[in-house]
Amino acid sequence: MAIDDETRSGQAERDESAWSVARLNNEIEAALESASNRFPTYVVGEVSDATAKGYGTFFTLRDVDGEETIQCIIWSSYRNRIDESITEGEEVIVRSDVDFYTDGGRTQLNVKNYWPVGDSERTQELETLRAELDQEGLFDTDRKQPLPPFPSNIGIVTSLMGSAREDVREAAWGRAPGVTLTFFGATVQGKNAPPSLVGAIRQADQEPDVDIIVVTRGGGADDTLWCFNEEPVVRAIADCQTPTVVGVGHEDDETLAEGVADTSAMTPTEAGTVATPAMSTVRDRVAEIERRLRTGYDAIVRDRLDAYDRRVDNAVVSIERAAENRRAQIQRAADLEQRLDTAYSTLTSTRLDNLDSRIDTAVQQREHAAETEAVTATATRRRVAGLEARIDQAYQTRVQRETERLDRRIERGYQDIESSTDIKAAQQQVRQLQIVVLVLLGLLVLGVVLWASGLL
To answer: What pLDDT digit, counting tens, does each position of 33-53 carry?
Structure first.
């Protein structure tokens, strides 16, 4: 963009009238040195924010009756000569020179010596309140609520104009980008800070969507953080139903608000870190769990597969053994069958041979018997024929003999009959004798027949 001559002229005039920061600081230093006789040698105040370094000790000196402060430094060469230790909360008198640090543009007291005067009234009030809260158990660990591991909405009580707001936001969203941050604006130092903080804390606690309440502010001197020691603020935090985190940027001394909070943090950044889960860590943890699950799964599957392989191998071996046993049994059965066949064949053959032999013997015997019977029958027939011939001859002989005898008797009978007077009686006797002869002949023939039948 073009710049006209008038603008360049005005810019040149302003440059000539403006002082540099170095010139300003040098002039301030010169003015303070020239007016050094106007400053007192001794200053009284309350010590706070004492920080010891190797080359010296820095601390803040706060006005006993107000909130005004001035920074102090006592170099190690002077500090080593002092028997008293520098204790925060003490009211002290310091012997010092007013010093202006040109590089930093700040005024401080260069302390040569100091003497404790005693605890200030505000320090005594703080200790009294601390003892009361401790007696009520508000500092007890067992009453502190655990923070939810994965909050979805974080309520932040802080100044909407301070750097703490951005510090908390960056820390929270750096760890958990998806978390919701709800800001409750409050004054965090000065006389209006206690009621403002109490109202904001109660408002956040009544919000149902808020999972954690973070009360925070940036670092500062003890006097600027004193509102977090005020009883209303402390009790408002202790009464919260929602888990609380307090981080007021005070490293060396804990405020009462931090003591009653469920979790304390030293800085707004740490408060944002404490209130949120590290999603990268969660993702790493999930990845680790997945890896372990995968490894465990692989190991289990591998073990199961190995077990199955062993079982299959054992089953195969068992089946092979069973098959071998079956083959052996089949072979034994075949051998038995062969032996049975052989034995059966042998037994059958032997028995058949025996039967054949017996049959042959029986046949031979039968044939021999038949031959014998035939011979016997022939002999018998011959004998029968001989007997028949003998019987016939005997019969003829006997019949002839009997006939002759009968004839003789008949002749004698006839002779007797003839000689008898009764011829009829003689004739009848003859007829009776004839009947007797016929019966005897029949008996003789029957006897011959029966005898012949007995021989056959």
So the answer is: 887 778 877 888 888 888 888
Domain 21-119 coded CATH 2.40.50.140? yes
Query: Contact at 8 Å (CB) between 384 and 456?
Result: yes
Closest CA to 112 of 101, 99, 125: 99
Residue 264 in 3-state DSSP?
A: strand
* Residues composing the chain: 456
Q: Which of 48, 43, 41, 126 is CA-nearest to residue 90? A: 48
Question: How many CB atoms within 10 Å of residue 100?
Answer: 17
Of the candidates 51, 48, 42, 76, the one whose C-alpha atom is nearest the C-alpha of residue 61 is 48
| The three-state (H, E, C) secondary structure of 135-201, written as one string | HCCCCCHHHCCCCCCCCCEEEEEECCCCHHHHHHHHHHHHHCCCCEEEEEECCCCCCCHHHHHHHHH
**Rounded Cα distance, 99 and 29, in Å:** 8
Q: Which stretches does DSSP call E strand in 68-126?
A: 69-75, 90-101, 106-119
Please give the full DSSP string across 352-380, using - where no structure is assigned: HHHHHHHHHHHHHHHHHHHHHHHHHHHHH
Q: What is the dihedral of CA 332, 338, 343, 345, to 10 degrees?
A: 160
**In whole angstroms, what is the distance from residue 263 CA to residue 257 CA?**
10
Contact 387, 379 (CB under 8 A): no
pLDDT tens track for 194-234:
999 999 999 999 999 999 999 998 766 556 678 888 999 99
- Cα torsion through 231, 233, 238, 242, rounded to 10: 170
Mean pLDDT of all residues in the chain?
79
CA 438, 440, 446: angle at the middle one, nearest 5? 105
**What is the rounded radius of gyration, in angstroms, for the C-alpha atoms of the chain?**
77
| Boundaries of every domain in the chain | 21-119, 126-277
Q: Which token pair is 427?
A: 């004739």
Q: Is the dihedral of CA 350, 355, 358, 361 positive or negative?
A: negative
Query: How confident is the model over 385-439, as pLDDT tens digits?
Result: 676 677 677 667 766 777 777 777 767 766 665 665 566 665 677 677 778 777 7
**CATH homologous superfamily, domain 126-277:** Hypothetical protein af1403; domain 2 (3.40.50.10550)
Q: Which two tokens stand for residue 267?
A: 């800085």
Q: Helix, strand, coil shares of the chain as percentages rounded to 5? A: 60, 15, 20
Q: 3-state DSSP call for residue 444?
A: helix
Residue 80, both tokens: 């080593």
Phi–psi pair at 101, nearest 5 degrees: -95, 105
Residue from 319, 264, 300, 256 nearest 123 by CA: 256
Which of 71, 66, 65 has the alpha carbon at shortest distance from 47? 71
Question: Which two tokens mark 17?
Answer: 């009238």
